Amino acid sequence: MIEIVCNDRLGKKVRVKCNPDDTIGDLKLLIAAQTGTKPEKIVLKKWQAPL
């Protein structure tokens, strides 16, 4: 399992554990379950570049 740190830039930082073979959609669902944000609204970026 890998651990991903997500920051919503409003002060909330969440750590999500997922499998390396999970898709981006699966990752968004895991983040949504922990933050309460809809998965459709989540935009994942790495150093300002969208994934």
UniProtKB/TrEMBL annotation:
- Top-level taxonomic group: Eukaryota
- Give the record's keywords alphabetically: Ubl conjugation pathway
The cross-references to Gene3D superfamilies, in alphabetical order and at most eight, read:
Phosphatidylinositol 3-kinase Catalytic Subunit, Chain A, domain 1 (3.10.20.90)
| Record protein name field | Ubiquitin-like modifier HUB1
